[in-house]
Amino acid sequence: MIGQVLEQFRKSHLAKNVTFWQTIPEKPAQYRPFPSSLNPQIADLLRDKGIEQLYTHQAQAFELVSSSKDIVVVTPTASGKTLCYNLPVLNHILANPASRALYLFPTKALAQDQVAELMSMGERLGHAIKTYTYDGDTASDARQAIRSAGNIVVTNPDMLHSGILPHHTKWMGLFENLMYVVVDELHIYRGVFGSHVANVLRRLQRVCRFYGSNPVFICASATIANPGEHGRRLIGREVEVVDQNGAPSGPKEVIFYNPPVVNQSLGIRRSSLLETQRIAEEFIANKIQTIVFTRARVDLEVLVSYLQRSFKRLGDLAEKIRGYRGGYLPKQRREIERDLREGKVLGVVSTNALELGVDIGSLQAVVINGYPGTIASLWQQIGRAGRKHELAAAVLVGNSSPLNQYIITHPEFVLGQGAERALIDPDNMYILLSHLKCAAFELPFQAGELFGGKDVAEYLSFLVDEGILRFVEGRYYWMSEVYPANDISLRSASSDNFVIIDTTDGASSVIGEVDRFSAPMLIHEGAIYMHEGRQYHVDQLDWERQKAYARRVKVDYYTDANLDVDLKVLSVSESLQPGTKPAAQSWGEVLVSAKTHLYKKIRFYTHENIGWGPISLPEQEMHTTAFWFAQKLDLEPSVPSEVVQNALNGVAHLLLNTAPLELMCEPGDLGVVAQVKSPFTKLPTIYIYEKYPGGVGYAKQLFDLSRLVLERAYQLLQGCPCEAGCPSCIGPQVDIDQEAKQYARLFLEEALKHGTEPEA
Amino acid sequence: MELNQKLRRFAAGPKLDKGLEAAELGFANGREVSNPFGRYYMVEHTYPLDSYHGRLRLDSILTVDWSRLAFIAKDESVKTLDLRKALFLDTETTGIAGGAGTCAFLIGVAFVRDDDVVVRQYLMRDYHEEAAMLFDLYRMIQEFDAIVSFNGKCFDWPLLRDRFTLARFEPLRKNYVHLDLLHAARRLWRASLPSCSLDSLEAHVLKVAREQDIPGSLIPQRYFDFLRTKRAELLIDILEHNRSDVLSLVTLVGTLDLMAGKPAAEIKSDSLCWAIARLYVQDRQWHRAIEFLQQAASLNQSKAVRSAACSQLALIYRRLNLWDQAQAIWLMLAQENGDIQACEELAKFYEHICKDLGKARQFAKQGLALAMAKDRLRAAAFEHRLERLERKLARQEKTTLSVH
Ligand SMILES: [Zn+2]
C-alpha cells in the first residue's frame, strides 16, 4: 500500500520538489541469549512478554552494569532502551531487597510512563519491588512512604534539585542504599539546562558520598555525535559507550521535500504547513497510519483541524485524526497512545512530545513540518516510522528559515556525521556559583574539597566575603536564612526572567518569558509581542517586578526596537591569526551592553514605517563569551558604509540561524553584532555571543569549527535562489537595489580564503 | 597543591574564631562543656516550682490531669505522659526554610527536678560546635519519654532529627509521646485571639511580660551578626527569649488544664466557651457539651457565637430526642434571626414528628423566602418540600371532605 503511494508521489508533479530520496535497507536483529546471572523470575517475565533473547546492546549494557561500569547507551527510537536499565536494576534489587535506585527523566510525563511499566513488572515479580514517582504532584502523605520504602524512585532533575537534595536527611534510606542512578534522554540535558543538571548530579554524588554510597550511572541517549564525552561531562565520571544497536528495523524511505518558490525576487516559498498537510493527507487517505510532527503548538491545532475537515468528506476518518501535545491531560494522552497502538487512530499531529520515549508502537509514515531543531530529534522523529519487515516512509518538509533551507538542500549533513555534539559547560561561573550555594546548604564544604573534580576554593571564599558562607575550623558553613534552590531554576535561560502576562478580558495568565537582556527589545511598552502566532500589545512593563502586561490585539504591523548593542572584548581565550593576512578568528570573554532608545511600527508585507515610540529603559550589561571573526574587505571607497553594514548584518543573520547546527541549540541562545570597523580588530567584524551570562561552551565550539560554520553559511547563500536577500539567507532587505547579498558573499568568500586555515 | 591553597593553609593569619572561651561570653549560669565531639556552651537556670511565670505558678504543672490534656490535644498517648519523664523543648534556628542548611543554634529544654524547673540551654558559639552540642542533647533526650513543644511536631522535632542525621548519630529508636501545644491552643483560642502564636498567647492568656524582647523573625540575622562580631551581648536577649518560651510551655500546659477543668459557669468568654463545647461535641460527650453551649449562648456576647451555639444545642437535643427543647430553640432562631436551617428543621419536625402539615408548610414557606436570595440550592430543596407538603395537604383535605 505505502509502496504504491510512494510510487505515485515519485511520478507526480510534486516530485520535482524532492531534494533527497534514499532507501534505508532493512536491518536484521542481533540477539544474545539471556545472561546466566539473570534472575530466573525476570527471565520468565520476559518470556511471558514474548522476549526469548536480548538484543546485543541490551546484553552488553547488562554485563557492563553488572560489573559496576557507568554506561551511556545510545539508542534510536523503539529499540528496547528501557530494558537496558531496567534489567540490571531489577536483577540487583531482587537479590538485594534493601538496595535502591533513582531514575531521572526530563519530564513528568515520561516519568509517569516509566512508573506504570516498572510497577507492572514489580507486581509480576511478586510485589518484591516498589516503584514510586516523586514530583510536584506527589501528595504529602505519600512522600513519607516513598522516602522510606521505594526501591525505585522516579523523578526529574528539578525535583532532585529543589525537593530532594536540600532535604537529603529525610532521604537517608535512599542515599545510604543507592546502587543505581538512571539518567534517561541524556541528549536533552545540553546547553544551559544540561550545565545545570551536571551540577545537580555533582551535588547528588556529594550527598551519596556523605552517606557512604557510590551508585553506578546508567545513561541513555538518542543518537548524538559525542555520547561518551557528553556523558562524562554530565556525570563527571568515565563512561563506557554502548552504541552497537541490535534492534531490527524494517526498510525505510527517507524523503526531503522543499516547498516550491512562489515569489522569486522575495524568495517566498509555499507554506510548509500546507505542504505537510497535503502529504499527510495522501498517506492517511490510503489508510496508512501517520504521525505528523510540528514544532509550534498553534501549527498543531491548525493542522488537526485542516486534516479533520478534509476527511469529513471521506466519512468516518475525521475521528481518526487526533492532536497530541504536552498540555493535554494525562488521561487524554494515555487514551491517544492506546488508540495509536491499537490502530484506532489513523493520523496524529504531535509536537516533540511524542518524539521521546512514549510507547505508541511504530507507525508506517512520518511527516515532519520543519526541521525540528537538532539532528538528534530529526532522527528520533524519523525513527517513529518503521515496523519490522514492513516498508515505512519519513518525509521532512522544509520551511523558509535559513536552517531549514540548509538542511533540506544539504542532506549529506544529516546523513554524513549522523548527529551533532551536545555541549554543556558545568563550570560556567554563574551556574557553578549557584550550585555551590545549594551544595553548601546541603553539606558544609571542607577546605580543599573538590566539587565535580574542580578546585572551588576561590568561589567559596567569594561566598564567605559575600556573607553567605562562614569559614570556621576548616569548613564552609551555610550562613543564611535563604533556601537557595528556590531561587535557581534549571530550565529558564536566565535566573531573572521577565514574564509576560495576558490580561485580555480580565484574564491574568502567564504566556511567556523573556530574559532580562532581551526585555527592552521585545516587551517595552507599546511593543507587539508575538506568542503562538497571536499578537499581544504590551500595555505596561513593570521593570522592578519583571512583569509585562499585555493584551490580545489584531494589528497589521509589528514592532522593531532599535537596539544599540555594543560589545567590548574583555579577554581573548584562543585566537587564530594567520600570519600577515588581514583576518582573525577568536573566542573569549566579552561585555555586551545594549540600550534601546526607540521602536518602530512596521507594516506587514510592505515594510513601511508607520510610526515610532520612545523607550526609556536602563542599559543592559552582560558578561558572556563570544566567537568573532574579522575580515578586511577591499571595496571601492564609493561604497557607502550603510551598504557594508547591511551586508555584515546579513552575514550575521545567516550565521545566527545556521550556527545552531553545530551547537545543538536554538537561534535564541545566541546574539550577533556586526561592526564595519570594530574598535578591537580595526576591521569589519562579526561577533556571535552567547545569551546566557558566562556562556555554556558555544563560543568555543564555534571557534573550533569556524571553517565549517563559515562554509555552511557561504553554501547556503550561494544556493539561495533569491535575487537580493530573503528570509532564507541574509534576511529580507527593505531596499532591494542595494547590493547587500553580493557584499555578504564577498565577505564570506574572503574570510574563507584567508582566515580559517591554521598557518602551515 | 595550588598556591592559594598553600597560602590558606600555611600563611593565613590568626583566625577570629579561635579559642573563644566561656569567660568571653560570660553569661550568668553559663559554662563551656566538652565531650568527645568538641566543645560548646551551656546555660542552666533553675526556677523553684513555687515561682511565677506570668500569672500562673510553675507548680500548676504538678496537678495537671493529663487525660484532660489528651482530650484537648486529641492525642490519646498524652494520657500516659509522666511529668518527670517529659522534656519541654524549644529551638532557635538559623531560618524557617527547613532543609539541611537550616540548623538549631540554641536549644532550650525544661524539665522538673526535685522542687525546681530546670531550664537548660544548649548553645553553639559557632558552626563547628554543633556536633558537640547535639551530642549532649541527644544523650539527654534518651533519658526522657515525652516531648512538650509548641509547633514542634512540624518544626523543631523533625529539624533536630535531621541535625542528628547530619551529625551521623544513630536514629532515635524510642517512640516519644509528643504533646504539641500549638494544636491544643488553636482548638481553644482560635476564635477569641487574633493569633495563636506563642507570643500572642503569652500576651493574652499567660500574661507573661516581655521587656525588650527580640521578635522571632530577627533572631537568625542576629545570630549571624554574633558570629561575625563575636559580641556576646548580641545573644543576651535571644537566650532570654528562649528561656521565657520554654517556661511558657510549662505554664501553657497548666493553663490548658485549668481551662479544661473549669465548670461552664466560670467561663466568661463566649467564644472560649463555644470552643470547649466543640471539643465535647467532637468527643460525643453530649451533656458536657450542652452545659457549655448553654453558657456560651447565655453570655450573649456576640450574635454569631450565640446563634451557632443555639443551632448546635438544638441538634444535640434532636439527637437525644428532646424535641420540646429543640423546637423551642428552632422557633427562637427562626423568629429572631431568620435562620434558614432552623426553618428547615422545623418543617421537618412538624411534618414527620408532629404530623402538623399546616405548620410544616408555614416554615417551609418561610425557609423558601429566606433562601431565595442567598442559597439557590437550598431554595430548590424548600420548593421540593413545599410541593410534597401541598400534595399531602390536598390528599388530607380530600380525605377530610369524604369523611364529612
Ligand atoms: Zn535568499
Topology, pairings included?
The complex is a heterodimer of chains A (760) and B (404).
Chain A: H1 2-11, E1 18-24, E2 31-32, H2 40-48, E3 54-55, H3 56-66, E4 71-74, H4 81-95, E5 100-104, H5 108-124, E6 131-133, H6 140-149, E7 152-155, H7 157-164, H8 172-176, E8 178-183, H9 191-210, E9 216-221, H10 227-235, E10 240-242, E11 252-257, E12 261-263, E13 268-269, H11 272-285, E14 290-294, H12 297-312, E15 321-324, H13 330-341, E16 347-350, E17 365-369, H14 375-382, E18 392-397, H15 402-409, H16 411-416, H17 429-442, E19 445-446, E20 450-451, E21 454-455, H18 457-465, E22 469-472, E23 475-478, E24 497-502, E25 509-515, H19 519-522, E26 528-531, E27 534-542, E28 547-553, E29 557-576, E30 583-603, E31 609-614, E32 620-631, H20 641-658, H21 660-663, E33 670-675, E34 685-690, H22 698-704, H23 706-719, H24 740-755
Parallel strand pairs in A: 4-9, 4-10, 5-7, 5-8, 6-7, 8-9, 11-18, 14-16, 14-17, 15-16, 17-18, 24-28
Antiparallel strand pairs in A: 1-11, 2-3, 12-13, 19-23, 20-21, 22-23, 24-25, 26-27, 27-28, 29-30, 30-31, 30-32, 32-34, 33-34
Chain B: H1 3-11, H2 22-25, E1 30-35, E2 38-48, E3 52-53, E4 56-57, H3 66-73, E5 86-93, E6 104-113, E7 116-123, H4 130-141, E8 146-149, H5 156-166, E9 177-180, H6 181-189, H7 198-206, H8 219-229, H9 233-261, H10 270-282, H11 286-299, H12 303-319, H13 323-337, H14 340-353, H15 357-374, H16 376-403
Parallel strand pairs in B: 5-8, 8-9
Antiparallel strand pairs in B: 1-2, 2-7, 3-4, 5-6, 6-7
